[in-house]
Specification:
The relative contact order is 0.13. This protein has helices spanning 3-11, 20-27, 83-88, 109-118, 120-146, 149-164, 175-181, 186-196, 213-220; strands at 31-35, 40-42, 50-56, 59-65, 68-75, 79-81, 95-98, 102-108, 168-170, 201-204, 207-210. The chain is built from nine helices and eleven strands. Helix 4 (109-118) packs across helix 5 and helix 6 crosses helix 8. 44% of the residues lie in helices and 24% in strands. Strand 4 (59-65) and strand 5 (68-75) form a beta hairpin.
Length: 231
């Protein structure tokens, strides 16, 4: 592992307080995966074999049943994804698939569990990561239950703008994927963008332009108990 990769691992929540010699021993067992777009690393119903940590790129968590499929959430770095299944040694409840070229650290399951038992610092970091992911899922659920489709889209646009640090940006994912991610149909997504024209958002092809951020915020009503980033 390169020094830069080791520092990324060292800065991750699971290992942040672990003594460097102990982390070096773990780092020797980490495999670095360069994932092309649309690569499935974890499949719904399968047993975990690795702890996966996303360091670059974007993944989606997808679930299907009886011929229907939906996107549960997106995963941004740095995140250990589907950590609950890894800790519990139980089947994945979702499929993890890369949306763009991504970089992932893969630590064998047994190595992670041995380290978890041996180092309280890793156990504490794992608790914090699981708590973070739990809060993320509660926020997702609140957004779906409390907001209408256009408000979910408006808050997604604001959050993406803050992540990217710009008011004009291109969609890096297909609109059908975005619609599923926001628990919308494609028709609802189109109507949502049409509605947001009245609230300061212009869409040309795949390019989104926030022309009036104050108007968009007034419509979206961003909430710190739902949204991680407030523009």
């Amino acid at each position: 592992m390169r020094e830069t990769d080791f520092r990324v691992l060292q800065g991750f929540q699971l290992f942040r307080t672990l003594a460097e010699p102990d982390l070096l021993a773990i780092a020797r067992r980490v495999e670095i995966l360069e994932c092309p777009s649309q690569l499935v690393l974890a499949r719904e119903g399968e047993m975990p074999k690795f702890l996966y940590i996303l360091t670059e790129g974007l993944f989606e968590l997808v679930s299907g049943h009886a011929g229907r499929q939906t996107i549960i959430s997106f995963i941004r770095p740095p995140t250990a994804f589907i950590l609950a299944a890894v800790v519990m040694r139980q089947p994945y409840l979702v499929t993890a698939r890369s949306l763009v070229p991504s970089r992932v650290f893969a630590l064998p399951l047994d190595v992670f569990h041995d380290s978890l038992a041996a180092h309280p610092a890793i156990a504490l970091g794992t608790c914090r990561e699981l708590a973070t992911r739990y809060r993320d899922m509660v926020k997702e659920l609140k957004g779906v239950k409390i907001r209408n489709a256009s408000q979910r889209l408006a808050n997604w646009i604001l959050t993406e703008s803050d992540v990217l640090g710009q008011s004009t940006y291109d969609l890096t994912i297909q609109k059908t994927i975005l619609a599923s991610r926001l628990s919308m149909t494609n028709a609802h997504l189109s109507r949502g963008f049409a509605t947001l024209k009245q609230h300061g958002v212009a869409l040309r092809g795949r390019r989104i332009n926030i022309q009036n951020r104050d108007a968009l915020r007034a419509f979206a009503h961003p909430d710190p108990l739902i949204d991680d980033i407030l523009s």
